[in-house]
From TrEMBL:
Cellular component per GO, a single term: cytosol
One example of a Gene Ontology biological process annotation: isopentenyl diphosphate biosynthetic process, mevalonate pathway
Protein function: Mevalonate kinase; part of the second module of ergosterol biosynthesis pathway that includes the middle steps of the pathway. The second module is carried out in the vacuole and involves the formation of farnesyl diphosphate, which is also an important intermediate in the biosynthesis of ubiquinone, dolichol, heme and prenylated proteins.
Keyword Magnesium among UniProt keywords: yes
Domain of life (superkingdom): Eukaryota
Alphabetized GO MF terms: ATP binding; mevalonate kinase activity
Entry's family note: Belongs to the GHMP kinase family. Mevalonate kinase subfamily.
Gene that produces this protein: TBLA0D01180
Metabolic or biological pathway, per its Swiss-Prot or TrEMBL entry: Isoprenoid biosynthesis; isopentenyl diphosphate biosynthesis via mevalonate pathway; isopentenyl diphosphate from (R)-mevalonate: step 1/3
Designated name of the protein: Mevalonate kinase
Sequence ranges assigned to domain GHMP kinase N-terminal in this UniProt record: 118-195
Record field: catalytic activity: (R)-mevalonate + ATP = (R)-5-phosphomevalonate + ADP + H(+)
Compartment annotation: Cytoplasm
Amino acid sequence: MPLPILTSAPGKVILFGEHAAVYGEPAIAAAVSSLRTYLLVSNANDPNIIQLDFLDIKLTHQWECNDFSTIPTIQPSTKELDSTLLKSIDPLLSSFKSNPLHHQAALTFLYLFFSLIPNLKGLKFSVRSTLPVGAGLGSSASICVSLSTALLHLAKLISIPLNKAQLKLINDWAFIGEKCMHGNPSGIDNTVATYGNSILLNSQSHEIIDIDLPILLTYTKIPRSTKQLVSNVRHMYNSHHAIVSKILSSIGHITLESKDLLLADASDIDSLGELININQHLLQSINVSHPMIEKIIKLTNQFQIGYTKLTGAGGGGCTLTLLKKDVDRKDVDRFINILKKDYNFDVFETNLGGFGTGVLELDNKNKELDDRVKQCFEIKSLASREQLDQILLPLCNNTTLN
Ligand SMILES: Nc1ncnc2c1ncn2[C@@H]1O[C@H](COP(=O)(O)OP(=O)(O)OP(=O)(O)O)[C@@H](O)[C@H]1O
Ligand SMILES: C[C@@](O)(CCO)CC(=O)[O-]
Ligand SMILES: [Mg+2]
């Protein structure tokens, strides 16, 4: 297998249906193709180690392959997590117990590694992302899809160009990765990271829908954990089942109504905006909003520029703002300026949709490109987001990365 290989997958926004999706309700998500995770798999310096350079979370670690002798040979399955494998991985995670980000990432990596290429050695897995980590933009799913694509390619279970069956295999294994990440995912994040575009997920089947909406993304930089937020809703669901299941079902109805609107007349921004407001209020009622999310909503209404809701698991992280059709650009700029200057939030203006996952074999034919790509994963001189966008993003389209 020629190395290095580069894989990549986009982040996402959930337009409607977060949290309800975990209970089988429909949800709509769109890829944010310009915000991506990149994974470079190359030869490690030592043929008997497996090395991680997950530079965005400052996780650099290597395992001696001799330490893998206690890992059982399992029948890999994408149906559910294998508890025997999970238990046998635990001793390899002892150095990450005090850091949940590291523990989640290393557990997910090892689970997918031992499921797909348990006997390969001497590999280095380097990750860089232009997605804010843990922000609600699907960073965990994008790394799961990038890993699943690379490991399936190394296992020779997929080949480029990727066909429908192979994308499904990638998505199925990425869903297993998301289960390692936060226990009880719906699958919407990994599905949109795999296929790109915008998707409606409805009880485990998905359809691609075309969405082109003027959206602002605001990142509050307030850290939160999807695993914890999903677990909190589960607790509320168990304690107040009748009420919470009605709330989640109402969110599902909003998703379906928004789909009809998007297909009928996506220019009816105000009707979509009303659904965004109702969805946000229902999310507040299951306690996944945050005072800073409410602040952004207040400012949205004060400047009358559009409609804002949290996106992803909430609890901080990100909001999305659907801009009104005839909005005055000066009002939008004033809104953005206050968010950046007074609250130190990041604001992204980006298109929705775009490309999902793919593989690029750096075949050493183009040494200049190969060297520029490898520089993006150097520990010493950490490449900036702009450099990643300049060098790696152009490689992530259907003609190059596929
Ligand atoms: N660039 C990255 N490098 C290494 N690990 C990452 C990276 N991005 C995400 N992760 C892993 O994913 C975890 C964050 O996942 P989490 O689901 O909480 O946030 P998110 O996916 O950004 O939000 P949401 O699921 O609401 O969209 C981190 O703890 C880390 O383990
Ligand atoms: C909160 C949630 O609905 C979306 C997280 O981006 C969890 C999930 O669907 O897996
Ligand atoms: Mg996640």
